[in-house]
Amino acid sequence: MASAKFVNDVTQDDVIATKAALNRSADEYGNDPTVEKMWAMKAFNHADIYFNILCSIKFNEEQLKSQEAKEKWRPFCEKFKGVVEDYNFGTLLRLHTEEDYTPDNSIIVPRIQFYAIELARNREGLNDRIRSLHNLKTQISQLGSRE
């Protein structure tokens, strides 16, 4: 006797086998390295795509503060509500990575937007130059205070 067909060619036998598998103890199952590798590859590809989007443009205030930009960023930011403390708290963001915080190079954005942009900048190495300049200034200042 043929099994009854359900949605998308799933048979009654398939449903029974799935139920039996789900009723087994989790201890009977091991982690399949292939599945873990595929998950890691998918996560990496997602991060790579998102990172490329973030790095593909130089920011200006209009790009971050326009109504169109707010509509694009809002769904992303809201995903972190209740996950990241003060996710929408106003935070200073430098528009250009090669410059320090100045009135002309700083705008206020939601904290989670700051995190997303600065994490992408750090991964790409875009903050290395300003960090090196700051470290050099600190070293010069320390040498001057020894005299």
From TrEMBL:
Domain of life: Eukaryota
InterPro entries membership: PBDC1-like_dom_sf, PBDC1_metazoa/fungi, Polysacc_synth_dom
Annotated Polysaccharide biosynthesis domain residues: 60-131
Any Pfam family the entry gives: PBDC1
One Gene Ontology term, aspect cellular component: cytoplasm
Name of the protein this chain belongs to: Polysaccharide biosynthesis domain-containing protein
The organism of origin for this protein: Diploptera punctata (Pacific beetle cockroach)
Lineage: Eukaryota, Metazoa, Ecdysozoa, Arthropoda, Hexapoda
